[in-house]
Amino acid sequence: MLQLFQNIDWTPFLVSIKLSIITCVILFCFCVPLAWIFAFKHFRTKKILETIITLPLVLPPSVVGFYLLILFSKYSFLGEFLEKHFDIALAFTFEGLVIASCIYSLPFMFNPLYTSMTLISKNVIEASFSLGKNSLITLFKVVLPHIKLAMLSALVISFAHTMGEFGIVLMIGGSLSGETKVASIAIYESMENLDFATAHIYSLILLIFSFIVLLSVNLLKNK
């Protein structure tokens, strides 16, 4: 067992961690103002947009991955436009993988932030506005300090979810070593090659990593 750990290829885990960190940063920066708008603004298409945002929760990853693969391919309008004018290819690239992960992990970041913001008393927000504070200051000085726990949960859940992604990663990124081959793909390929020992090591590492992350969050919650 010790020999297997020494000979293990850590590259898929590094790719997974890199993908998870970038995805979490992008989603956090995007979802904080988005949750603010949904929590404190009223507009006609709100419920429709909420449904679209949370759709990845019930859709199989292969469905999302299939349509994104079509969208990213050079035969689609978007894919052709990006490749022709900017020389950018999204299918089977790390950049495409980041976009796909952001779309599929969006509800895992958005829902905790949105739910916690809706629990903040409207009187607190109105008091901030009555003191002459604009929306930006109110968001950073009043709202975000009230939802620290929700922000932590959203970041951890999104990170852990991205680390464990398989279907959408396989559809969009394939298995390019050092670029799109993440830990879950490495486990799948080890099983395909009947290399159960390596698959076991990879799975054990992910299990231990996930346990440590969740345990750390629970300890921080208690503090």
What is the N-to-C order of secondary-structure elements (H for helix, E for strand)?
Answer: HHHHHHHHHHHH
Number of helices: 12
Mean pLDDT: 87
> What characteristic shape results from the CA principal axes?
globular
| CATH-defined superfamily | MetI-like
The CATH level-2 architecture is identified as: Orthogonal Bundle
Strand content: under 5%
Assign the structural class, choosing from mainly alpha, mainly beta, alpha/beta, alpha+beta, or little secondary structure.
mainly alpha
| Main sheet makeup | none
In percent, how helical is the residue content?
over 70%
- In the predicted model, the low-confidence regions spanning at least 5 consecutive residues are none
CATH class category: Mainly Alpha
Number of strands: 0
End-to-end Cα distance, whole Å, is 37 Å
Domain unit count: 1
CA-atom Rg in angstroms: 20 Å
Protein name: Molybdenum transport system permease
GO molecular function: molybdate ion transmembrane transporter activity
Main location: membrane
InterPro entries: MetI-like, MetI-like_sf, ModB_ABC
